Amino acid sequence: MATCDAWRTSCCLLRAPHPPPAPPSTLPPPLPPQLLDLLKSVSRSFYLSIRLLPAGLRQPVAIAYLLARASDTIADTSELPARERATMLELFMGLIEGAQPPGSVEDISAWFAPFQRNEDEHALMVALPQCFAWMAQLGPQDLDAVREVLASITRGQQLDVERFGEPATIASLQSPGELDEYTWLVAGSVGEFWTRMCFRHLPDFSNLPEERMLELAKSYGKGLQLVNILRDVGEDLAAGRCYLPAHELAAAGVAPGDRIMNAAALQPVWQKWLHLAQQRLDDGMLYASAVKPRRVRAASALPALLGARTLALLRADGLAGAMAHRVKMDRTQVQGLLLRLALTLASPASLAAQYRRMGQGQ
């Protein structure tokens, strides 16, 4: 009940004044309840951001996210050989581009759903045909934008399978350039997609020009993915993946092939990328502060606020703690953050104050 009350309060207080009703022919279709349920089950934090968006933006962004999660699920189904997953990702990409028979999605759904132990991931794979049906209902410009961002994300998943597809051996990215490319493919491209969609759907979106917002969005997205990488370093090593560059590990005296790495030796490398993640979250807050509609400003700032808190938890635990367990923000803290966003109407000054607070672990 407390969760519902906090969410209801935040939605009411962040709601912008109602614009004049649009003619019936221009009103966007409501999000299907099944789509919202799927979104909430696979990512509660992104679901919160989606709910803050204007109606015309919710459907294309939500569908893009669900299909991106589906490609991630395909890539991560380690019970299947890497070659088979790579083949299915090619088929998935053909479906996104409209170059495969629609019935192929049924094959992917039927093949991958039984391997999902997580019930939410299982439900997503079962609903994959419906997700493609929802995508097909988008307008031409939105459909092109969704296809473009999914092409980048799926390419990132394909690289993951190629590099880390055989968990019996551990592999590492080779250079900072490979890490930068990966974070752009799976997250920086999402920031650019979000920005282009907002400029298209919201005529008075930002105080900054589109080119500058795209630069900040790219950096912001890459920073969020770095936070994920730094948070999941222990789990990734156990699964045979290391996203930290091999030559940096070697310079620190760490063998990339070691599943159990010396935390003290690895610390300088980890700290370097932690610092860069913080800088890129700072870009995210510059981005959010430039957004004019307050609900979209809140939605844009929320990932940076959560990311700042995650970085604070990582600093408090240290690398050894991050390798031992996955840090996670408490749900009551998320509720408190949403309520503060609501009470302050997500003003730029209040967002800056909350960002500092989150970064200090408060």
UniProtKB/TrEMBL annotation:
Top-level taxon in the UniProt lineage: Bacteria
Gene3D superfamilies tied to this protein: Farnesyl Diphosphate Synthase
Biological processes annotated in GO: farnesyl diphosphate metabolic process
GO MF, one annotated term: squalene synthase [NAD(P)H] activity
SUPFAM superfamilies the UniProt entry points to: Terpenoid synthases
Protein name per UniProt: Farnesyl-diphosphate farnesyltransferase
Source organism of this protein record: Caenimonas koreensis DSM 17982
Source species taxonomy: Bacteria, Pseudomonadati, Pseudomonadota, Betaproteobacteria, Burkholderiales
